[in-house]
Amino acid sequence: MNYLAVLSVVFALTSTGVTGVLGNPTIAQMMGFLKQYNTDWSFPRVIDIANTVNYSALDPDVVGRVDITNTFVGAELNTEYLFGMFSSFGNDSHTSLIGVPLNQTISQLVVQGNTIFTSLIVTFNWTVEIIPVQFNVAFMFNDAGKVIEYDAVLVRSSWILPLVLPKMVPRLAEELGLPVTTDPTFLATKRAALDICAGHEQFCTGSLTQYNSTDACIEFIMNQVPFGDIWQAGQNTGICRYLHAAMLSRRPAVHCPHIGPTGGDMCTEKSYFDVVLNDGFSRKFIDLPGGLTVEQALHLADNTSCSKTGE
């Protein structure tokens, strides 16, 4: 098949009205978002955004997924997870087990149709050390240039706690009145239990109560669930409940169940297969030139391959 024949196939496919593009934002709108987000997702700016409980750059029905946690639906919930959580950790009176973003650099960027694919190197302050972390993110936009979906992956997440936790030991041991020879994971679990259960006592009252007492809460966090690693921040772990405790003050009705024994709809056991095969997105991050579907593009590739072999 010659080049003109390939073009005719493209025209035939695209003229059917099949399109993978939901919105038609301008590149200025999309890059404007990325520039603003790079400013907003930094401490202490996250505090101002968190107080709005509704980040204006997000569509009201936005769906966002962060691989180490969960899939979040709606602007309010996504604002809490992107900004509210870090605003609390940055103001923690005790040693925070989670760092806060300071600034970020774009290391890779592809813009196609209504989608940005980017790799961000984010400088995080973990109190005991400043470290770079890498987020690979896909952002999808509507006609107004607002984010309707995003999919974020924290690259090499399993390296982070082993890197920073040993350096937290002296501070945690001093705060908790324990020897510096205490196991680092025990120290982290104890710090998390005290913070989670203090938040429960303050915000989860009346019908929102999850534990019969603070002692029962501490016992559960310390002994009934594993503390977990950062990549398990959306599972039935102590670290998942620790993340949600940071959001109790703004919307306790939403987050009190997440720190309780059941984990609500966030801190629960998840099937590997369900997580991999069900991404929660109604629109896929597929945006090919001419609005082609994957099948149509592969058909073009097949035809082009045939021409190379002389068939």
UniProtKB/TrEMBL annotation:
Record's keyword terms, sorted: Signal
Annotated signal sequence is 1-20
What name does the UniProt record give this protein?
A: Secreted protein
What organism does this protein naturally occur in? Mycena sanguinolenta
